[in-house]
Amino acid sequence: MSIEARNLFFSYGGADVLKDLSFFAEAGELVAVLGPNGVGKSTFFGCLLGFLHPRTGEVLAEGKPIRGMSPRELASLIAYIPQYAPQTFNYTVLDLVTMGMTNQIPIFSSPKPEHRRRAMEALESLGIAHLADRGSGSISGGERQLALLARALVQDARVLIMDEPTANLDYGNSFRVMQRVQELGARGYTVIFSTHEPNQAFRYATRVLALLDGGVLADGPPDTALTEELLRRLYGVGVAVRSAEVEGESFRLSIPYEKGGKPQ
């Protein structure tokens, strides 16, 4: 499914955060959104999700403007996976995932066996079915992130928007979560995720959207878009981009450095 932003302008207190920003993504793309803190990544995501309304411009899903759509209609098109979801109640993982189908369950009705079956299938597809009866507040950060991803999948939305999906995760959990995200792209989902780690974009994204000063600085495949000059402009530090080969597969890597200490 496609999602598009056309000429977005968004302001806070008279100051433009997004300035004539346009973007288009389609099924099977994994788009990594990069940029320094305060550049407008969260505002951009808020507009794509319909949480925020741009001053001018519009967002379209499958060619239809999302403004004016009901919450249920929007939830059937776009799912959001936050970097952190507060655990007010220690729901089981299965219950947490089943909540993703509230857009499909009539108001004041309870989930049916069919809904719980679908929730289990989503857990199985991400390799965490064994957590179904565990309390969602007692699992690891990586497991919780996968549970939130399963909750998004049962919405039946084909666009997934992820805000720093591996923030605060350890190295292993970060790898496991992003492996699952990559698999979803291969299954035809449109995935848009923000990250502060260029190497994550190199490793998993099919495309990079680099934001600076409220607009698009670069948009293209990671290997061509993520140049040393672009990363220096984004983050204000020297960056060397190198290639490495692991078990016959070539990878691109970014290495930050201070002036005078550039990696060879």
How would you describe what is shown here?
With 264 residues, the protein is α/β, with parallel strands linked by helices. It folds into 2 domains: 1-77 and 157-221, P-loop containing nucleotide triphosphate hydrolases (Rossmann fold, 3-Layer(aba) Sandwich); 91-152, no CATH class. The protein is 31% helix and 29% strand. It contains 9 helices and 12 strands. The protein has helices at 41-49, 71-75, 93-98, 113-125, 141-153, 171-186, 198-204, 222-225, 228-235; strands spanning 3-12, 15-25, 30-34, 56-61, 64-65, 78-81, 159-162, 190-194, 207-212, 215-220, 238-246, 249-257. It has a 6-stranded mixed beta sheet, sandwiched between helices. The chain starts with a strand and ends in a 7-residue tail after the last strand. The mean pLDDT is 92.
How large is the radius of gyration?
Answer: 19 Å
The computed structural class is alpha/beta
CATH homology superfamily of the largest domain? P-loop containing nucleotide triphosphate hydrolases
CATH class of the largest domain: Alpha Beta
Based on the structure given, which CATH architecture of the largest domain is correct? Answer: 3-Layer(aba) Sandwich
Task: Report the total helices.
Answer: 9
Note poorly predicted spans: none
The total strand number stands at 12
What count of structural domains?
2
Q: How would a crystallographer describe the biggest sheet?
A: 6 strands, mixed
Summarize the helices and strands and which ones pair or pack.
Layout: E1 3-12, E2 15-25, E3 30-34, H1 41-49, E4 56-61, E5 64-65, H2 71-75, E6 78-81, H3 93-98, H4 113-125, H5 141-153, E7 159-162, H6 171-186, E8 190-194, H7 198-204, E9 207-212, E10 215-220, H8 222-225, H9 228-235, E11 238-246, E12 249-257
Parallel strand pairs: 3-8, 3-9, 6-7, 7-8
Antiparallel strand pairs: 1-2, 1-4, 4-5, 9-10, 11-12
Helix pairs in contact: 4-5, 5-6
